[in-house]
């Protein structure tokens, strides 16, 4: 299921599509020839480097002195022997003592050669980057003609050298085996025989299951054995580990964070109900004829509610937990945090009503709220920024933890872009379009992505109980994100009247984005190293994992969309909508859910039922796939139809089944949000009778420590 979107992301379909217009690759164009040339040079370099590596390994091995065996080095070899081989050896030894040597050596060779010490193969990937500025077709063809036999020759040579290396390795193995055999048949060495006997016994040892009580019934005066409950109920979902409540959290902060998250969940349910309804309208356009529910009004209701209501409040809620935690001080002002929550909620409520009433800021996407309403949101952010900076300034830690870098930068960027998007200077003409592109992508990249990454840098290591793989990689990703993301706004308007060079800058920046994305992904995945087994026993880690996978694939999909050739096909189609959901939903929402499931049980001491957390996860993931994959496929076909000059209405008819799939996927996603809301309710307000043991044990612990202090 997950392979398809990944493939669609990484394979630039239009490269192979037979379309009219500017195809990227065609064998008779200079581009095509250059491509072949670069390919040949790349192959050549890869083969050359691989040969170099392999021969140097072989040289290293040849330079090594032959293996020597003695009583200390032999233990490693012994542990690799099976009991069958030990038996065979000891039998041969006995025979030797009776017969006095001779053919023993060859027999021993037979016993020992089973490939049990095959030397590890070494592989190395090479990143060869050819560079050629030649543009002349004739010269390129000549070079290709020259290169073809050279490449073929080098490949042949590589094959031969590989065979030689393999043979040499085999010979070395045999030499080693010979040396080992010599050692084994050398005059009797009691130490080795003793070691072999010991090893044989160890291999033959089996538990009798009577170790503790022998034949007698176990004496269980303390009820240790009798207390074990082996009658487990039928398990429908895997048992996950319970979170531990954190006693040191200020209850006032807990209440604040839970309010933020509760409001966010309400906006998620509301916003996606609107999205679901809009999606249904693609299948049944005449479902209603009310102006307040028209497509044009409900679509921005959906996008703004999920942006400013769900994702923003969710992030801020988690941020209010993370910032004081990593600064090791209480939040600077609880009152300000409540004000910020009230203002942002007010902005979304008023914005939604005004949009449905037809009052909006014009066409600019994600800035449809009129300025007085967006101002409330802005003031909320200013208050939060001030609150966070004061908290960080009062920190008792020496360093500012990376999460705080990301969180504070995200709020600053959100404020800057909002001002740029709403000041009256650039509200007309091309300037407006450039500002729109800048606003839109800074919105998703510098507000949502930056903030969410800050949250992941805190919760992922915490949930895995290990430190982040590389702090420096986090810093690199941070600055690279600032460098490239701020340049890529105009990739939304490729082929528009915006200056060509500015579009090119945006495309180059979109490629540059690979650096922070690869750095971030590597950092997160490497943090999992050695802890993968924890994924199956945790219900937050699968959410993180999905977020990381989509962070990589969804972002690279964005890079693929930015090229002129691909944008020619995908722009104006639903491919962009699929990308928006793969990223805003697959990355941002999944990371937020992961953080929420990690933090709320710590604050409230209550858990959500595991079965409904599972239902939330799987419905959201499967729904997202149903939503996006058909849209990506149908949109590619649609773009090609447009380029072939087919009538527009034909492409609408062709899209019908894909829109149906989107509605089905959307319904599953929507259902998953109901489960999420229920889970949050259970985690915040649910009864915790199941946890009755917890307080009882705590009371016991307390009385125990009291007794200890009196003593
Ligand atoms: C039940 C879940 C959801 C459904 C059914 C849904 C449905 C839709 C629909 C039908 C559209 C309009 C597409 C168009 O104009 O062709 C849309 C747009 C959009 N939705 Fe959702 N959505 C859902 C969840 C979300 C969430 C959780 C987010 C963000 C956190 C989100 C972000 C967006 C964005 C950014 C757009 C604009 C897309 C663009 O212009 O490229 N959606 N959604
Ligand atoms: C390497 C990173 C990324 C690149 C290069 C990239 C590139 C693009 C491009 C080229 C488009 C415009 C497609 C078109 O209109 O033809 C686009 C749209 C969009 N992207 Fe990304 N993207 C990236 C990451 C993200 C992330 C992380 C998010 C969300 C968190 C995101 C959210 C969106 C949204 C919501 C749109 C739709 C904007 C609209 O309404 O037109 N993208 N992206």
Automatic annotation (TrEMBL):
GO cellular component, one term: membrane
Pfam families membership: COX1 (PF00115)
The protein's name in its UniProt record: Cytochrome oxidase subunit I
Record's keyword annotation contains Chaperone: no
Domain Cytochrome oxidase subunit I profile: 251-711
A biological process term (GO) from this entry: electron transport coupled proton transport
Gene Ontology MF terms in the entry: cytochrome-c oxidase activity; heme binding
InterPro entries: Cyt_c_oxase-like_su1_dom, Cyt_c_oxase-like_su1_sf, Cyt_C_Oxase_1
Alphabetical keyword list: Electron transport, Membrane, Respiratory chain, Transmembrane, Transmembrane helix, Transport
TM annotation in the entry: 33-51, 102-119, 139-159, 256-280, 305-324, 336-357, 369-389, 401-426, 438-460, 467-488, 500-519, 531-552, 582-600, 612-633, 659-681
PANTHER family in UniProt: CYTOCHROME C OXIDASE SUBUNIT 1, CYTOCHROME C OXIDASE SUBUNIT 1 HOMOLOG, BACTEROID
